[in-house]
């Protein structure tokens, strides 16, 4: 980082974010102007001009003259005096989040904030607006790479969330889990996988492995938009089309039918609330732990409030019935995909706030309580595999399943919970038993169809109701259970 000695101290958090926006907008405008000129006339930027293509830096200094304040809040906290810094991308879009983090750090700790251009260049793909600029000018990517910043995988990593960052004298501590380059990398991948602009993503995220949940979500969203008293304003579809309150039912149905969701690997739908800062996203992540890790690697940079897995599982107990629910309170991770980053011997705890909210929501939606609810909703360990045909090696897996007391099996839940723990995003799992592979009740086409019609709508409603409960307890939800002893100040 440079320019620290000449950067003025920001009087307020709002001033700091204003400066971030001004510097970022100027850098993007300068790089786009140079790109347009190069595409049109072949004139490359000079060294002085290229020096403007940099992310803004946010620097915090804490030199306490009194004991730190006592707070139960797990984020926006300072524990070690000194300097903290990060780079910021798209500060206007992240403004509410940035203010939420910075205001307590200034008001409660007396931290000093400075904003100035960093040394980190903005890769040119991240400033292209339409994506077809290169085709217009017939300019090759190789030609652009000679004169403009390019994404460097060596500078994009998860060393901070994975605990690999090490303090060195004279180097600021991380202010956030993800810097600008890592964030921009994921924002573009989100658009690629989900088929929607990353700005459409909402902070409450449902993850599912069946398209039928998407259909039920869309139906529910359209009913909300048709209700004058609803707090929701519009629904964003894969491909970017929006359904608002002014659309008739026939118009809305046509937009849904025309949405090109099949073109995208993990199509997403986003229902926005009128406040502009809340709402629900649902993503069909498909099947398997690889997809689960891929999408959550990228969703995490948005700093969502919570992601919930609502999908299907195989029941492992004779007493379970098709259509029963499984509320995971533990995970036997046989998915293997995160073993190098979060070894299997590291416990992934259930989050009490999420567990209680899921159970309360289930009681409300089903209308059942006490023993009646316990018969339908069982709490226990879920085993997640990387092999859909795990039954073919049951003789090898039998002992682990018995020792873990697992009650259900799937392919994504363990990965999603481990990713939530690793990337500090609250998580939870509520599965629905669709078959019982150890007891001869397999998922036959006819039975599956009846099951889907009966169970999916109720299951989805429980997930949505859970978010309604958690929305009222954000401070507790973003708990200390997700944070290390040397955690960056930002959530």
Automatic annotation (TrEMBL):
It catalyses: AMP + H2O = D-ribose 5-phosphate + adenine. SUPFAM superfamilies: Purine and uridine phosphorylases. Keywords: Glycosidase, Hydrolase. Residues 274-458 form the Nucleoside phosphorylase domain. Catalyzes the hydrolysis of the N-glycosidic bond of AMP to form adenine and ribose 5-phosphate. Involved in regulation of AMP concentrations. HAMAP family: AMP_nucleosidase (MF_01932). Belongs to the AMP nucleosidase family. This is AMP nucleosidase. It comes from Teichococcus globiformis. The lineage of its organism: Bacteria, Pseudomonadati, Pseudomonadota, Alphaproteobacteria, Acetobacterales.
């Amino acid at each position: 980082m440079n320019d620290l000695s000449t950067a003025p101290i920001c009087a307020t958090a709002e001033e700091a974010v204003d400066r971030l926006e001004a510097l970022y907008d100027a850098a993007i405008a300068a790089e786009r102007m140079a790109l347009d000129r190069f595409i049109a006339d072949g004139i490359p930027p000079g060294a002085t001009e290229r020096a403007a293509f940099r992310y803004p830096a946010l620097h915090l200094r804490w030199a306490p003259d009194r004991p730190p304040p006592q707070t139960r809040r797990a984020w926006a906290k300072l524990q070690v005096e000194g300097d903290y810094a990060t780079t910021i991308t798209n500060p206007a879009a992240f403004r509410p989040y940035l203010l939420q983090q910075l205001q307590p750090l200034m008001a409660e700790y007396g931290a000093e904030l400075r904003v100035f251009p960093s040394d980190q260049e903005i890769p040119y793909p991240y400033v292209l607006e339409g994506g077809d600029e290169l085709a217009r000018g017939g300019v090759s990517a190789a030609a652009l790479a000679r004169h403009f910043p390019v994404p460097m995988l060596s500078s994009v990593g998860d060393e901070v969330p994975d605990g690999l960052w090490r303090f060195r004298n004279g180097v600021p501590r991380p202010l956030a889990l993800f810097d600008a380059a890592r964030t921009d990398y994921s924002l573009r991948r989100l658009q690629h996988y989900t088929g929607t602009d990353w700005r459409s993503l909402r902070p409450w995220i449902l993850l599912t492995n069946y398209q039928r949940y998407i259909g039920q979500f869309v139906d529910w969203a359209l009913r909300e938009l048709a209700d004058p008293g609803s707090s929701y304003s519009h629904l964003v579809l894969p491909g970017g089309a929006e359904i608002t309150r002014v659309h008739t039912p026939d118009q809305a149905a046509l937009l849904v039918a025309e949405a090109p969701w099949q073109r995208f690997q993990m199509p997403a739908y986003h229902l926005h609330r009128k406040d502009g800062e809340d709402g629900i996203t649902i993503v069909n992540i498909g099947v398997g732990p690889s997809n689960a890790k891929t999408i959550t690697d990228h969703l995490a940079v948005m700093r969502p409030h919570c992601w919930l897995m609502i999908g299907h599982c195989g029941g492992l107990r004779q007493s379970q019935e098709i259509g029963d629910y499984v509320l995971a309170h533990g995970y036997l991770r046989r998915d293997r995909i995160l073993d190098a980053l979060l070894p299997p011997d590291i416990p992934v705890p259930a989050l009490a706030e999420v567990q209680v909210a899921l159970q309360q929501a289930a009681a409300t939606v089903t209308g059942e309580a006490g023993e009646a609810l316990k018969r339908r909703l069982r709490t226990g360990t879920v085993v997640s595999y990387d092999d859909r045909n795990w039954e073919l090696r049951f003789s090898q897996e039998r002992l682990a399943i018995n020792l873990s007391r697992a009650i259900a099996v799937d392919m994504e839940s363990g990965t999603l919970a481990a990713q939530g723990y690793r990337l500090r995003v609250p998580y939870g799992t509520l599965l629905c038993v669709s078959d019982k592979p150890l007891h001869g009740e397999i998922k036959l086409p006819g039975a599956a169809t009846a099951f889907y019609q009966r169970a999916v709508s109720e299951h989805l409603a429980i997930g949505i109701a859970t978010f309604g409960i958690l929305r009222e307890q954000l401070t507790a939800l973003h708990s200390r259970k997700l944070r290390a002893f040397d955690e960056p100040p930002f959530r």
